[in-house]
Specification:
Elements: H1 2-5, E1 23-24, H2 47-55, E2 61-66, E3 69-74, H3 77-85, E4 89-91, H4 98-103, H5 121-131, H6 137-142, H7 144-155, E5 163-165, H8 166-183, H9 190-205, H10 225-247, H11 253-259, E6 261-263, E7 271-273, H12 276-290, H13 292-307, H14 309-326, H15 332-336, H16 339-351, E8 360-362, E9 366-368, E10 371-373, E11 378-381, H17 383-388, H18 430-448, E12 451-453, E13 478-481
Parallel strand pairs: 1-2, 3-11
Antiparallel strand pairs: 2-3, 4-8, 5-13, 6-7, 8-11, 9-10, 12-13
Helix pairs in contact: 7-8, 7-18, 8-9, 8-12, 8-13, 9-10, 10-12, 13-16, 13-18
The structure holds protoporphyrin IX containing FE.
Length: 483
């Protein structure tokens, strides 16, 4: 009966391996399985993982069933690092018919040749090598002025006594970084800016749309909004590449990609660079990976600060002291002096990280923590559960927002804090993301002085958007400046 209702349940099992398969979470809906997106307003969009893990007694490795496939959830830094650093596991590339893609490139929404989905290890390493220079701390430093400008512009909407939705402010900030810093455009006209923002949103939301999963040869598929958005974005990126080739490099991420080269030994022309096609696909994937993640983390941070005015006061005081010693300028050196600011960001990333990494596929059977991970199975490195079950943090208080824990070596989370993943596919944009969040929150603390969450009433907890892929407060986080 089970085999009929959950047909893929025992798809992967290695009879030659003595170790048992990981424990199975309750199977959920027949055929579809566990609804990993059915979160709870109280406990957030990733509630499923906490609930299922609790029901099984919190093993580090267990199985759930999703859309016809068994998926193995792995938590705990030791296990997660083993998976992410082992050659026995590889990324599950973006599916799609390679032949059809070659014929009709425009019918593919997200290329499997971008750094995030590239399956071939050598090609992935080559892409990382050429993209890397765009994300070094030095490159991020060069872009700091563009980040400050974007934050100042977006925070200028905050006015005393007026209610402002911080979700919109944070999202616009991340989108501004996308055109100013990642692509390096010089958009002046409000209409053009709005068009760019709309296109990135439509393109990113394609990840969760049916259109992304339709076969490449479906007629009129390219008329769907995410495909139209892609066409516009590709056009903008091509224009910018041409401009860079004529006028030379600037401080943008795209520029670093265009001028990044790799010296290759024993090849006649011993210098290679990314092809225009690689540059375009990778620029597009940076828009997907770099906007929603940063915007949601910032929105959650503002929510936490609104519920903890004492913490906000400490954050503000640190900025006031820095201004009195070093002036108003925001530079990378100044940001590094803001240790409390750093703790606020880390604490937010601890409680609301992205749920986990992209799925990995076991290329051979592996025994981990005494459990069988059979060849062919999908593995989900569960960052959320790794943070939740970190023995350094008491389990019943793991959601307590307490940045002070980061200031003491005895209470500070250590190896079980993995917000940017690990190994050869660790988040390439981590330095940029951290710089964006430091700039935004320091300017927010300088500007807001005192604020309250609008409409929160007596509620002393955050309600979460139950179906959001990245944890996000449900009400858009409206705030009012008090002073
Ligand atoms: C708070 C913000 C962010 C968080 C929490 C975050 C988190 C992550 C995590 C956990 C991974 C690892 C995925 C895996 O192993 O499968 C990852 C990969 C990646 N991230 Fe981020 N990210 C953030 C911001 C950014 C930004 C700003 C960019 C670029 C503009 C970016 C670009 C990427 C790319 C390209 C990858 C794939 C790297 C590879 O496969 O080699 N991310 N991110």
């Amino acid at each position: 009966m089970k085999r009929f209702l959950w047909p893929g349940l025992n798809k992967f099992h290695d009879p030659e391996c003595d170790a048992l398969l990981p424990e199975q979470a309750p199977l959920g809906c027949p055929f579809f399985g566990n609804n990993i997106l059915a979160g709870s307003k109280k406990k957030g969009s990733e509630y499923f993982y906490s609930e299922a893990s609790k029901k099984l007694g919190h093993p580090n490795i267990w199985r759930f069933y999703f859309m016809g496939y068994p998926v193995i959830s792995v938590s705990g830094s030791k296990n997660v690092n083993t998976i992410l650093q082992s050659k026995k596991f590889n990324i599950m590339g973006w599916s799609g018919d390679e032949k059809a893609k070659k014929k009709r490139k425009e019918a593919t929404l997200y290329s499997s040749n971008s750094v995030m989905f590239e399956h071939d290890r050598e090609k992935h390493q080559y892409l990382r090598h050429l993209l890397g220079p765009a994300f070094t701390p030095q490159s991020v430093r060069k872009g700091i002025n563009a980040i400050v400008l974007a934050a100042e512009e977006q925070l200028s909407v905050l006015k005393k006594g007026q209610s402002v939705k911080m979700e919109d402010v944070c999202e616009n900030f991340a989108l501004d970084i996308a055109w100013r810093q990642i692509i390096g455009l010089d958009l002046k006209d409000q209409y053009e800016i709005a068009r760019f923002h709309k296109a990135v949103n439509a393109y990113v939301s394609g990840v969760f749309s049916v259109g992304a999963y339709l076969p490449d040869n479906i007629p009129f598929k390219t008329l769907l909004p995410p495909y139209r958005a892609r066409k516009y974005l590709v056009h903008k990126i091509k224009e910018k590449i041409a401009d860079l080739e004529t006028n030379g490099p600037d401080g943008s991420t795209l520029s670093a990609m265009v001028f990044s080269t790799e010296h290759v030994e024993d090849v006649d022309a011993n210098v290679t660079r990314l092809s225009d096609e690689d540059i375009i696909e990778n620029a597009l994937i940076l828009l997907v990976a770099g906007t929603e993640t940063t915007a949601s983390t910032l929105t959650s941070a503002i929510s936490f600060l609104g519920l903890h005015p004492d913490v906000f006061e400490k954050l503000r005081k640190e900025q006031v002291e820095i201004i009195s010693l070093h002036g108003e300028n925001i530079t990378p050196e100044i940001l590094h002096k803001s240790s409390f600011l750093e703790s606020v960001i880390q604490e937010t990333l601890r409680i609301v990280p992205v749920s986990g990494t992209n799925l990995r596929k076991a290329e051979e059977t592996v025994v981990l923590d005494g459990k069988q991970i059979p060849k062919g199975s999908a593995v989900f490195c569960n960052i959320r559960l790794t943070h939740e079950l970190d023995p350094q943090v008491k389990s019943e208080t793991w959601t307590d927002f307490c940045p002070e824990r980061w200031l003491d070596d005895n209470t500070k989370p250590k190896e079980d804090f993995l917000p940017f993943g690990s190994g050869s596919r660790r988040c390439i944009g981590a330095s940029l993301a951290m710089a964006e969040m430091r700039v935004f929150l320091s300017l927010f603390a300088r500007k807001a002085k005192k604020f309250k969450l609008d409409g929160a009433g007596k509620r002393r907890e955050i309600l979460w958007r139950p179906t959001s892929i990245i944890p996000k407060p449900d009400n858009g986080v409206p705030i009012i400046l008090d002073d």
